[in-house]
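Case study 2.
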Amino acid sequence: MNNLTISQAHKGLLEKKFSALELTKLFLNKIKKQDKKISAFLTITDDLALSQAKQVDKLISDNKKIPILAGIPLAVKDNILVDGVKATCASKILENYIAPYDATCIKKLKQPGAVILGKTNLDEFAMGSSTEHSAFSPTKNPNDLTRVPGGSSGGSAAAVSADLCCYALGSDTGGSIRQPASFCGVVGLKPTYGAVSRYGLIAFASSLDQIGPITKTAEDAQIVFKAISGKDKKDSTSVELSETRVSVKLKDLRIGIPKEYFIKGMDSEVEKIIRQAIKKIQEIGAKVEEISLPHTEYGLAVYYLIMPSEASANLARYDGVKYGLSKSAKDLLNVYLDSRAGGFGDEVKRRIMLGTYALSAGYYDAYYLKAQKVRTLIKHDFDKAFNKVDAIFTPTSPFPAFKLGEKIKDPVSMYLSDIFTACVNLVGLPAVSMPVGFAGKLPVGLQIIGKPFEENKILEISKVYG
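Prediction:
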């Protein structure tokens, strides 16, 4: 029962090779034995998982037809609400917060009988690229325990990579699903903005955030995406998707390679592996052409103005009064100051301060408004490119997983981890990171970017790589 994909686990349940309870117990035991050295999980939901598994076993014993996700154990990033379970966001300010309801994506997974094993570690409030900014402990990369798993969905990616669950949910604001998927050697899908409801996702940057799956195969990503996507009246930005499962003819495909993404300073081994992956699809018959996304060079600067601005507004609600950590003080102002000073970590404070500055009187036009205008130019670049090509191939990250502690004291160096992923969020496009090789023993991911709501097309293309 090792390294089961969703399809394999479903087949095993139908053929009664094992029960949902046996499968769940296997994963719970693995977590208890192996997660001490990885720290992928913040909370393990034994009772919930076992009761969900028993319900599925009852359906099977009653000869009822079960959906493909019934009885399949998953892990959930700890910024997505699961009713009655802690939702800490890996922050001291929400250390004892219990979710009062299910996120829409959780509701959609509970309906077919998914089994929730627990909540996974992340950079505090999803702010980071290494999962070292967790208030509780850093997560380690299962491929090399001296290295980071990426971030902010590092716990989810590490859990899938270490086979501590069949699949996981993450969230992606500037690369937080794709970059850890690349570092850990798994598949990570960032859906189109609006494809998956954000209701029940603890807000970070509302025009950028998206929930998506981290899985072992592209086929598994399709299964999970289909289950969690669609219109939700509780999220006005969500969209109804058509049911189409596209068949992709590789010989008709036009793949764009942006010259701006093969940059000076990029790891040579990563570039070699990505170029081999491009050659592979060319050999199968796809047409590959160089394209230009000229405003790419401004993408990171734009992202690091818009994202902290939205974060500073979203995190204003943690005031020590309504919920979360509350420090007693002599007056209300000091309740605010002491609660936020004690509850937020350094990286969160840094981004709140950046965002508050960018939105302040006298600087709003110079920074935030200008960033939004350049965001539109970046969108036009992608629109123009997609008039010529069906998909865009880039590296997911300019380098493989770096050492724990290597970039923690240098925020700008850490921010460069998002250089190939942030523009996708600014424009709201779908993108998948697919493992395509190893630099030494460290995985390397290929990023495939698609047109809006063409998740199935980019996932079909991904199947070329396993």
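The domain at 6-228 is CATH 3.90.1300.10 (Amidase signature (AS) enzymes).
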